[in-house]
Amino acid sequence: MAYENIVVSAEDRVAVVTLNRPQVLNALNRATMDELVDALEGYDRDDAVRCVILTGAGRAFAAGADINEFRGATPVTMLNQYRFQQWEHIRKISKPIIAAVNGFCLGGGCELAMLCDIILAAEAARFGQPEINLGLMPGAGGTQRLPRAVGKYRAMELILTGRQITAQVAYEWGLVNRVVPGEMLMDEARALAREIAEKAPVAVRLAKEAILKSLDSPLETGLDHERRLFYLLFSTQDKDEGIEAFLNKRKPEFKGK
Questions:
Q1: Are 254 and 199 in contact (CB under 8 A)?
Q2: Domain-wise residue ranges, the chain
Q3: Which pLDDT belongs to residue 81?
């Protein structure tokens, strides 16, 4: 389908989804989130795509929610808009998503990046949860995912002050995987995505599932889940291909079966 708020493309088993409202720093309104969910779920079903890159056009990844949609809103209107169901759909995407963060990554934008599986940041990127400055608080996972990424005390400081941090600080705190020069951001993201796309798709999907399970489960529960997924991979053709390729010292050709 044709989108108004995002741009999509796919090549070499890697899809790129670009938030495309640069005039408002890619503010996340409901329409944009609906389109984003539609695109990501479509790529999740597409066997030709094995990894997705999410980025933003212009000077921002996403500078937060579209505040115009909050004017005059009530608890009932917020509930009836199913606003956070969109985020749950993204959380359930099974294929790896790499956030390529350029510029501002604030509020809902930071929460969206944290929904991704890997975060690469341009040197000029800035991260933060400034909702407190509006008399609000993060509502799309910021109070839950940020402490898991950077620890309780740093998360408290960021959320309660609304301050922004640089990409380098975000890296030092464990919020991003690495920082790269801005002009190299998409090249680095594509290279990483292609590397992941070369791996066995079912193994990648189940490994992602196991890692996410570890974040909300006791260790014993997580270990049990990991073992079940590990055993399941022994029913795949890709397991046989991977082992034979290793033993014969050749590159495997994984089919996702």
A1: yes
A2: 6-197, 201-247
A3: 72
- Identical topology for domains 6-197 and 201-247: no
* Residue 112 near residue 62, CB atoms below 8 Å: yes
Amino acid (one-letter) located at 11: E
Whole-number Å distance between alpha carbons of 24 and 124: 18
Distance in angstroms (rounded) separating the CA atoms of residues 157 and 129 = 10
User: Hey, which residues are catalytic here?
Assistant: 65, 108, 111, 131
Assigned CATH for 6-197: 3.90.226.10
Over residues 119-155, the pLDDT tens digits come to: 999 999 999 999 999 999 999 999 999 999 999 999 9
The residue ranges of DSSP E strands in 125-222, in sequence order, are 126-128, 164-166, 178-180
Q: What pLDDT score was predicted for residue 82?
A: 65
What is the torsional sign of CA 164, 165, 167, 170? negative
CATH 3.40.50.150 fits 201-247, yes or no: no
pTM given for the model: 0.94
Question: What residues in the chain have per-residue pLDDT under 70?
Answer: 1, 82
